[in-house]
Design a protein that fits this description.
globular
Length: about 290
């Protein structure tokens, strides 16, 4: 199994951040999403944070080197004067990229994956998640697939659906309507709980691997052996918090003949997101019809 290097990490994050800096519409959309998801306590400082964002935009668009430098310094100073939040972490990663401080930029982006992993992987930096994180999470996908198959096992004989490595994705898509027609409320609830746990497991693994990537970045001389961490496999809700069970098997990014299986599992996830979307839509329609009858 190949070892992740600091150069590989920096290449992934620098490429992504450079693309964001070159695409104003995408940049504004991401920053708008991050502002929307700020906590009420952070919203109290929204004017100052917006000022930092506007100052950064000025640095991006100006051709005057002196104005660019002063704008970047001011924006950084504004952001560092307030507690860390998703918006400031992302802005700082852009500022440091413009300043050619690529390690600092990478760390700021990784901070977003640590403090707000769900926002980072789904809204702010899905490309980084797929290329740096998800490739390490094959055991999570296998766990998810096994749990989902167990929940739906009672439907297999009715619908003829089989979730094995040789399944054809298009056949599975066609079978979605059959699954929906046979799914009861209990199965739908279990699948919904599984989706929730799956999201929690992805979030926790993001936090675990942020620490791993930062260790690699900190090992400047390359004189330490940094072991790849075990993957968190299962979320267990105890009391008012989640606890996590780890997979002791080593993770691998060398898929080879496993690549097809990996792609099939990813496609299964898409299929079941569609199932949930259709199911929720049907439930909403039923509720609307009942209200109209009443």
């Amino acid at each position: 199994m190949s070892t992740t290097t600091a150069d590989e990490i920096l290449q992934q994050t620098t490429t992504f951040l450079s693309e964001i800096l070159s695409q104003s519409d995408l940049r504004r959309r991401i920053l708008s999403t991050l502002r929307t998801n700020l906590s009420p306590s952070v919203q109290l400082n929204i004017k100052q944070l917006n000022l930092a964002g506007e100052t950064l935009e000025n640095a991006i668009t100006t051709t005057n080197f002196s104005v660019k430098s002063s704008s970047l310094r001011l924006s950084e100073k504004l952001l560092l004067s307030y507690p860390q939040n998703p918006y400031s972490s992302f802005l700082l990663s852009l500022i440091y990229t413009l300043c050619q401080r690529h390690i600092d930029a990478c760390i700021s982006l990784l901070d977003l994956f640590k403090t707000h992993p769900s926002i980072a992987r789904s809204e702010a930096a899905p490309q980084v998640f797929e290329e740096m994180f998800l490739i390490n999470f094959v055991p999570v996908l296998e766990w998810y697939n096994e749990e989902r198959s167990r929940i739906l096992s009672s439907l297999s004989s009715i619908s003829g659906y089989e979730s094995d490595d040789n399944s054809v994705v298009m056949d599975s898509v066609v079978s979605c309507t059959t699954l929906l027609s046979n799914m009861n409320d209990n199965q739908a609830l279990k699948l919904k709980d599984l989706e929730r746990d799956y999201e929690q497991v992805l979030d926790e693994n993001c936090r675990v691997f942020v620490g791993y990537f930062k260790e690699i970045l900190g090992n400047k001389d390359g004189n330490r052996v940094i072991d790849r961490p075990s993957v968190v496999l299962e979320a267990v809700y105890k009391g008012d918090k989640y606890e996590y069970n780890q997979d002791e098997k080593s993770t691998s990014t060398d898929f080879g003949s496993e690549n097809r299986r990996y792609n099939v599992m990813l496609n299964f996830q898409l299929i079941y997101y569609l199932i949930f979307m259709f199911y929720n839509s049907l439930q909403a329609q039923k509720s609307f019809q009942v209200q109209n009858i009443s």
